[in-house]
Amino acid sequence: MTDEMELDEDLDEIEQTLDDEEDGWDAGPFVAGLVVGAAVGAGLALLFAPAPGRTTRRRIRRRIAEFEREAGDRLEEAATVVRREFKDRKEALRDRIERGMERVEEMGG
């Protein structure tokens, strides 16, 4: 029973501390920080605002054209690799078939 009483006393003490802190809270510094933060944010937004619509559209077109060129180059490179790989594998298969036929002939087939 003593433990329960001590626990109740501790909880009452914590509750009183929280009540005291709430009563002493000053909103002034918070509001001042909020106003200063908003002003700084607005200033930064003006400094880093995107370019006008015409400039932005030109940049987008330029980037799309660049992307198309890069994609075309990479596609051509991939096609070259695929053609080379296909040719190499076809030659390797042809060699295996020829060796297999030679072995069959050697066995008397």
Number of helices: 3
Structural class, please? mainly alpha
Q: Got a strand count?
A: 0
Rg over CA atoms, rounded to whole Å, is 39 Å
Q: What's the N-to-C terminus distance?
A: 102 Å
Unreliable spans are none
Strand content: under 5%
The biggest beta sheet reads: none
Mean pLDDT: 79
Helix content: over 70%
String of helices and strands: HHH
Give the overall form: elongated
Task: Outline the fold blueprint.
Layout (H helix, E strand, L loop, with lengths): L1 H22 L4 H20 L5 H54 L3
Give a description of the structure.
The chain is an all-alpha fold and 109 residues long. Helices cover 88% and strands 0% of the residues. The protein contains three helices and no strands. The longest helix is centred in the C-terminal third of the chain and has 54 residues, at 53-106. The protein starts with a helix and ends with a helix. The model has no long low-confidence stretch (mean pLDDT 79).
List the main descriptive attributes of the protein structure presented here.
88% helix; 109 residues; elongated; mainly alpha; 3 helices
Short description:
Helix content is 88%, strand content 0%. It has helices spanning 2-23, 28-47, 53-106.
